[in-house]
Design brief:
The complex is a heterodimer of chains A (253) and B (123).
Chain A lengths: L1 E6 L5 E8 L6 E2 L4 E2 H6 L3 E8 L2 E9 L7 E4 L3 E7 L6 H9 L8 H11 L3 H10 L6 E6 L6 E6 L4 E6 L8 E4 L15 H11 L6 H8 L9 E8 L4 E7 L9
Antiparallel strand pairs in A: 1-2, 1-12, 2-13, 3-4, 5-6, 6-7, 7-8, 8-9, 9-10, 10-11, 13-14
Helix pairs in contact in A: 5-6
Chain B lengths: L23 E4 L2 E5 L9 H25 L4 H9 L1 H4 L6 H12 L3 H8 L1 H5 L2
Helix pairs in contact in B: 1-4, 2-5, 4-5
Classes of the chains: A alpha+beta (253), B mainly alpha (123).
């Protein structure tokens, strides 16, 4: 996955993501694509979750997957999650759960609870950083005020790092793929450098939903695992998603 | 880096929006979920519309699992043992998952697997 939160020159926050899923889950030799990735594309839906006929939050989902991976609480915050691989992974959390140790939260249930119940960026940040999880994850969170954008790097138990937009340091966006931001990505899976190159080339003055879509459409940020692209504008309460394809030649990840 | 060799890495794209062309496979349909409904009812409309796609995707996962464990024991495990987890999952997610299984006709264990995929594959 690739997720980013960027602040434009007027202090508006824009959140974009590519959802990549299906690595090593069956390669279709004939169509040169990942089997599960292609099967997931028809399941992508946008959902407006309402209570009392009023929107509580909106999300882009796979039909029947009741947790959240991408969502917006209009006028409050935006949230995406990216997979964080670790040997201390979710399978340990599952074993603990089965053995009766149930003080951790399932990742996508936490994100859904946050979208449903948190009312501000700060509240969402605290819940995402402090709740014990069954699996490690990256949470990418955007708010509705200047400087409110961060990447929360989570182990199962701890918040390892919170990396925030810091305009004074010239950091007008934060961008996360599937590697800790303070470490080099795997040399065979470096989507971070091309994505950052395109963000820097775009400049803060020109950042918009339109130009974020351009960044997320550049190979290898767009790749054979990309199922959908979502763009969110928190102040307008807007979420838009598009199912993607990566015609050959295209990186498998 | 080996990955920066063209054509797998390209110059930064411009003018891609509004989405069109070969990288755009289609728009995403909007649905409403009413949180005032009982959890087991919430996903009914979406699953009615997406039943075939859901069954198709779960079947692909089963095929993949059966390719690794040809005896079919892995899927047996999913069908027999994973339903036992569902009641330990927090409310309302447990009830929503049961509702998805009922509406789709997909065995409960397989819907549970789909919903806890993230925790299983973070290694």
């Amino acid at each position: 996955c690739t997720s980013l939160v960027a602040e434009d020159s007027n202090g508006n926050l824009i959140h974009g993501r590519n959802m990549d899923f299906g690595l090593f889950m069956g390669w279709d030799m004939k169509n040169r694509s990942w089997l599960i990735t292609e099967k997931l594309k028809p399941l992508v839906v946008n959902i407006d979750f309402q209570r009392g006929n009023k929107t509580v939050f909106k999300s882009t989902n796979f039909a029947g997957y009741v947790g959240m991976l991408t969502g917006i609480k209009p006028h409050a915050f935006t949230l995406t999650m990216n997979e964080r691989f670790s040997l201390d992974g979710g399978y340990i959390g599952i074993v603990e759960w089965i053995l009766g140790n149930r003080d951790g939260m399932w990742m996508s249930f936490l994100t859904r609870s946050v979208l449903e119940n948190a009312t501000s960026y700060e509240e969402a940040k605290n819940l995402l950083a402090q709740t014990k999880l069954l699996a490690p994850a990256y949470f990418i969170l955007g708010g509705n005020q200047t400087g409110q954008g961060c990447v929360i790097t989570r182990s199962r138990v701890l918040s390892l790092d919170i990396w925030e937009i810091e305009l004074k340091l010239g950091r007008w966006y934060v961008l996360e793929t599937n590697y800790d931001h303070w470490k080099e990505p795997l040399f065979l899976d470096n989507r971070r450098t091309p994505a950052m190159k395109c963000m820097n080339q775009t400049t803060q003055a020109n950042i918009s939903l339109k130009t974020v879509y351009d960044v997320l459409s550049t190979k290898p940020v767009l790749n054979k695992l990309t199922t959908y692209t979502t763009l969110m504008d928190v102040n307008k309460g807007k979420l838009e998603s598009y199912i993607r394809d990566c015609p050959n030649p295209c990186m498998p990840w | 880096s080996a990955q920066f060799v063209p054509p797998y890495t390209e110059e930064c794209q411009t003018g891609m929006y509004p989405p069109k062309g070969p990288t755009f496979k289609g728009p995403v349909t909007w649905y409403t979920i009413d949180l005032d409904l009982p959890p087991s009812e919430r996903w009914k409309l979406i699953i009615t519309d997406k039943k075939a796609a859901l069954v198709n995707m779960i079947q692909a996962i089963k095929d993949l699992a059966n390719a690794f464990v040809p005896s079919g024991k892995l899927i047996d495990l999913v069908d027999k043992d994973l339903p036992l987890i569902v009641n330990t999952l927090p409310y309302p997610f447990n009830e929503e998952i049961k509702g998805v299984a009922t509406a789709s006709g997909v065995p409960l264990g397989e819907v549970v697997l789909y919903n806890i995929f993230y925790e299983i594959f973070t290694v």
